[in-house]
Specification:
CATH superfamily of one domain: Dimeric alpha+beta barrel
CATH architecture of one domain: 2-Layer Sandwich
Helix content: 25-40%
Order of helices and strands: EHEEHHE
Shape: globular
Distance between the termini: 16 Å
Strand content: 15-25%
Structural class: alpha+beta
C-alpha cells in the first residue's frame, strides 16, 4: 500500500542541488534576446549531461531559476562562469544556494 503524504520517505539527493537565481535588468533585454540561442544551447548541453535538472525564466522577465546538480555552490559558480549570458555581462545578479528537496520530483526514490 502506498505511503500517505505524511508518511512519504524523506531523503536528500546523493549530489547537492544548487538553486541558481539570476536577476536581469530591462536595459539588457535586447542583448539577451541576441545571446539567448547560445545561452539555451549551453543549458541544453548541461541538461543532456544531467547537470541541469530544470531551468526557466520568471514569467515577469526579472530573472530565471536554474536547478543544478553540483558538488557545492563553488562548483556551480565555476560552471556558470561559462554561461554565454555571464560572458556577455547580461546577468545583473546571481545567487547560488544549496537546496534540499525532501519530497517530490527532485528526491531520489
Amino acid at each position: 500500500m502506498p505511503a500517505s503524504a505524511g508518511e512519504q520517505k524523506e531523503s536528500e539527493p546523493d549530489v547537492p542541488v544548487i538553486a541558481v537565481e539570476y536577476t536581469y535588468s530591462s536595459a539588457t533585454a535586447a542583448a539577451r534576446d541576441e545571446v539567448r540561442p547560445d545561452h539555451r544551447a549551453w543549458l541544453s548541453g548541461l541538461v543532456d549531461a544531467g547537470t541541469v535538472l530544470s531551468t526557466g525564466p520568471y514569467a515577469d522577465g526579472s530573472g530565471a531559476l536554474i536547478l543544478v546538480s553540483a558538488a557545492d555552490e563553488n562548483a556551480a559558480r565555476a560552471l556558470f562562469e561559462s554561461d554565454p549570458f555571464a560572458r556577455a555581462g547580461l546577468i545583473d545578479g546571481a545567487r547560488f544556494t544549496e537546496w534540499r528537496p525532501v519530497m517530490g520530483a527532485f528526491v531520489a526514490s
